[in-house]
């Protein structure tokens, strides 16, 4: 549980810190590799990929998903790679949830080509899911 807590805390901290810097210092798009890659401040009212749902429904789904992942994490074997995967997901989700509490919007700022703009919390969630999926496929392969 210690690795889960540390990973969750680190993901949450990096998420909130990056959003603070984006909100404070990033006011217009900054090109890194022309129009392909940049930092572009966007206030996202939706969930994944900017999908918008009715307000109360959206909030209920977000909280339910977070609780579901926490239950999965609690019931999971205490294996470091599981704790890291779940910790990244929970920390990222908490980062987005806390960001959303103030004004109903999430600060996104990483822009890659035409992919929806995303943030550190989104990256943590994605990496955590990939980590758990890779572990699932690799463990099935060994059995």
Structure write-up:
With 143 residues, the chain is of the alpha+beta class. The protein has a domain at 1-24 and 52-113. 64% of the residues lie in helices and 13% in strands. The protein is built from four helices and three strands; from the N terminus they run αββααβα. It has helices at residues 2-25, 55-75, 80-103, 120-142, and strands at 30-33, 37-44, 106-112. A three-stranded antiparallel β-sheet has the order 1-2-3. Helix 2 packs antiparallel against helix 3. The longest helix has 24 residues, at 2-25. The two termini are 26 Å apart. The model has no long low-confidence stretch (mean pLDDT 93).
Low-pLDDT stretches are: none
The string of secondary-structure elements, in order, is HEEHHEH
Relative helix content: 55-70%
- Radius of gyration, whole Å: 16 Å
Strand element count: 3
Beta content? 5-15%
The chain-level mean pLDDT equals 93
**N- to C-terminal separation?**
26 Å
Classification by helices and strands? alpha+beta
Largest sheet: 3 strands, antiparallel
Strand arrangement across the biggest beta sheet:
1-2-3
The 3D shape can be described as: globular
Q: What's the tally of helices?
A: 4
């Amino acid at each position: 549980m210690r690795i889960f807590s540390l990973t969750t805390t680190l993901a949450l901290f990096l998420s909130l810190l990056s959003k603070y810097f984006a909100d404070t210092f990033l006011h217009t798009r900054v090109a890194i590799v022309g129009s392909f890659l940049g930092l572009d401040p966007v206030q996202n009212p939706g969930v994944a990929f900017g999908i918008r749902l009715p307000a109360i429904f959206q909030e209920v789904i977000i909280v339910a998903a977070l609780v579901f992942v926490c239950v999965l994490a609690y019931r999971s074997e205490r294996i470091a790679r599981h704790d890291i995967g779940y910790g990244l997901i929970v920390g990222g989700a908490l980062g987005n949830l806390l960001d959303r509490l103030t004004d109903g919007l999430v600060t996104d700022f990483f822009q890659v080509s035409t992919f929806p703009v995303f943030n550190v919390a989104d990256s943590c969630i994605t990496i955590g899911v990939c980590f758990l999926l890779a572990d699932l496929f690799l463990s099935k392969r060994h059995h």
